[in-house]
Amino acid sequence: MRRRPIFLATLTWAYVVWSLVPVLIAIQFSFNDGKSRSAWQGFSTQWYVGGTGSVAEDPSLRLALTNTLILAVLTTLIATPLGVAMALGLSRWKGRTSRAANGLMLLPLATPEIVMGSALYLVFTNLYLFVSLGLPAQVLGHVTFSVSYVVVIVRSRLTSIGPDYEDAARDLGCNRLQALRLILLPLLSPAIFAGAMIVFASSMDDFVISAFLSPDASTATVPIKLYTAVRNAPTPALNALATLLLAASALALILAWLVLRRRTGTKALEQMASF
Predict the structure, then answer these.
(1) Of 251, 91, 89, nearest to 160 (Cα)?
(2) Minimal CB count within 10 Å: which of 72, 97, 192, 217?
């Protein structure tokens, strides 16, 4: 009989608890009835809505949340189709330079974020002067590092699918575009959605690149707002803002995980048969 890895399981759960306890404490005090962030004074939702200085009542907190959502949505809408197209192209590119191109695609994932942020700042302030700092530069910066997530996820799905479905569609009379639209894209839809959700979550959580490319408080995102406000006069409203950010990111990742588990092979076969 195989022995259970009790030590490894204990170590893993200890790490999980150690990581989650500070987050859970921060979430708890977002529902505190008073202004204290260390002494529990009763349950209340005043720091979310209704109370003075709450997320709903504070214009700066609402602006940061709005900026974060707009930036994440725009990044997702641009990076997802771009990443799908690049994944399809790289999977079909055969040649000596294809390995180098695949390696360069993974470079943003391996580059330290502080290096990426400073490099993007220098590019937008010295080379691409037509792109102003703020939302345009932030969107381009987020797309630069997040498109790799979509490429990796979609390419892994392409590898698992293989060329058989597309070849069968071509044998049944489809041209390349019809095979892509009717067969391949439905098979890739779980991976595409999962990639989009991961891009959305990573864009919402990003601090370094957003901070480098933000010229003033009007384009500050939630991570930037949390960093600047917590050093001055923090209130439980910041805990509430962080909780909203955490909930949105967690929801996106859970949706990505659930959709990625779906198998669409049967649906694709049905579409081929009906075609």
Answers:
(1) 91
(2) 97
